[in-house]
Design goal:
2 domains, 14 strands, Aspartate Aminotransferase, domain 1, homodimer, globular, 42% helix, alpha/beta
């Protein structure tokens, strides 16, 4: 057994997350730990809530980071909003929709799955049909930005349809928050969860969530207790709420320093500027990818700029390419998940990592590795095309 | 809304946790983030598991840190081991026993509460009686080291009795791990959870757990699915197990760097040496506390060295004292929880923070604050008494 300190290699993280963490966030992680009920910490919690309201574009009072990764945020939404026997429409067009279904089942709900092809957005017409067919649906759950395929769905349209049928929404915004337009209040989203490790340039482990008045009411009116004690919002809000702070669990102090710093960075840049930067980097990357002769899984109007799902060309071994990028260039990109394993590369341009240096080095390295493997690409074209796009 | 970086005050953390974090752990938190499936990270995961086996004194294969605070570790044990209708004996002699009961109820189990007074250890005789009275009990759950009162219970005796009646055990070792004797295999404990922020000198947010063969078998034989997707061990072990790593959730990378470093520190010092150091600091603190004329809640043979529960003297306002310690001396100590609110101070000597400097500064500051408030104490006696104890 080793008893040596761990010194990680220095990677460039361009997969589906975690993404490159801003140096200011890393520095914040190492600040002196203080108590979870320290007045100075409580003041920082209030700032974090306000900064998250800005990031989510919401006035929701129930806006805070869950003390666990995105899957804990997902589960927070489901166990608090689903009661045994509830009918829940789950839109499924990727891996994370399938997880939502699993969450509904385990919370005792009855999932009604509305399926779309991998790489395609959720069809609002199908959701409307399902709502007409199944009376008494209480929730519509969907992924705004599918990290497994890089597709964006029309969250506003889906929320409108859900509300027209008296249903609230649970929305996965893990990959969208901070990276592409998301407007919780204007779009009327009810329960939204995200992650710290994507477009916020923060370390993984926290899950920002927000709950509308409608969602908060639904939770208050529950007939059965929430099955999770750790994720029970009525208890958690005793700590994160505005009144006297009641100890519920010991908050992850230093990771919360990191998230606060990441949100300060987002506020300094401005949300719209951040969205625009992500799009600009995507356009340059796309120019390079297409010049190489590679293609995207998702059609243009539905592509997420921060998650580029690129088809692995015929005859090329996905894992070999990713391994070479990691070992020879210290660049991490992602592979496909589930049915898309071996068929996709997922290149993330997220948060701090959405910058021209990363675009260029990734394209240059991918070009070199594919050329070395004699893949059927247009060698040497990628970097020049991206340069032109940036010009 | 502030958009400024947060710079916490520099406190000395001598409450019930978080405790003072070792500078090497803080430095580890700021190391460059890498991917959760990076080969370098996977190698570090293996080291962390081995180091945790050492800390827990176990060979259990199912030994890893849950990606959430101690309450998530607690819930991991209960939702995986309790099935609907299961009879579970819950020993209750403090706040954390009450939480265990809540966990049993929410997992659909039938709790049988065996109660002992606050500040007293769990009476193994009562547990034996309950096991004889209620046939078919599947689990006995108890807190080894009650953080709310500073009392230690005889985990080995309780586990022996449980096994004699065919029941497995769930054990809260949040405050004991690393600070006072805990020997999972020798004592025959089945499911044990702890926290990173107590005697490991690490930041809060992770919960080391370990499961015996008996517990692992029980989980494999479940008739109903685990109600939590996030905490379902059969899924989590797909990521933390030894075979091909399957993505379950994005691990909290940097906090895991911190935990690894904390465990390396523990290995460097040696577990027995760490236990001895905690006891030595306790003896010096106790000498000072008693010289002042203050008294402990818990009787001597059952006291936890790392959590000193001291009675607030008559006529002294608990909150005023803690507030003065925090603001005038930057020292945090804890107050009482639940029925003991306002009646107790909880002084932690945990991990890195269990050192003579902390003992002396805490005694000196407490002495000064109490003297200022004209409390009925023996002024100026504490520090000298502690010095003698150290000599």
């Amino acid at each position: 057994m080793s008893t040596r300190s761990f010194n990680p290699p220095v990677r460039t993280l361009m997969g589906p997350g975690p993404s490159d963490v801003h140096p200011r966030v890393l520095a914040a992680m190492a600040r002196p730990t203080i108590g979870h009920l320290d007045p100075a910490f409580v003041a920082m919690m209030e700032e974090t809530k306000a900064l998250l309201q800005y990031a989510f574009q919401t006035q929701n009072a129930f806006t805070f980071p869950v003390s666990g990764p995105g899957s804990a945020g997902m589960e927070t939404c489901f166990v608090n909003l689903v009661e045994p026997g509830d009918k829940v429409i789950v839109c499924q067009n990727g891996v994370f929709g399938a997880r939502m279904k699993e969450n509904v089942v385990r919370a005792g709900g009855e999932p009604i799955v509305v399926e779309d092809n991998l790489g395609e957005p959720i069809d609002p017409g199908k959701v409307e049909d399902a709502l007409k067919k199944h009376r008494g649906v209480t929730l519509v759950a969907f992924v705004h930005a599918e990290t497994s395929t890089g597709v964006e769905s029309d969250a506003q349209a889906l929320a409108r349809i859900a509300h027209q049928h008296g249903a609230a929404t649970i929305v996965d915004a893990v990959t969208s928050l901070g990276g592409s337009p998301l407007s919780v209040d204007a779009w009327g989203l009810d329960a939204v969860y995200s992650g710290s490790q994507k477009c916020l340039s923060c370390t993984p482990g926290l899950s920002p969530v927000t709950f509308s008045e409608r969602a908060a009411e639904k939770i208050k009116k529950r007939k059965s207790p929430v099955q999770s004690w750790f994720l029970d919002l009525t208890l958690v809000m005793g700590y994160w709420g505005t009144g006297k702070r009641t100890y519920h669990h010991t908050a992850p102090i230093n990771p919360l320093y990191g998230l606060h710093e990441a949100l300060v960075l987002l506020k300094e840049e401005g949300l719209e500027a951040s969205w625009a930067r992500h799009r600009q980097q995507y356009e340059a990357l796309r120019a390079g990818i297409e010049a190489m002769g590679l293609s995207y899984l998702v059609k243009e109007p539905h592509r997420l700029p921060q998650l580029n799902a690129i088809r692995v060309p015929e005859g090329v071994d996905d894992a070999t390419v990713r391994s070479k990028l990691l070992h020879d260039y210290n660049i991490e990109i992602g592979g496909g998940l589930g049915a898309l394993a071996g068929k996709l590369w997922r290149i993330g341009l997220m948060g701090h990592g959405a910058n021209p240096k990363n675009v260029m080095s990734c394209l240059g390295a991918l070009d070199a590795v594919l050329a070395e493997l004699r893949a059927p690409i247009q060698e040497g074209a990628a970097v020049t095309a991206a340069q032109k796009a940036f010009a």
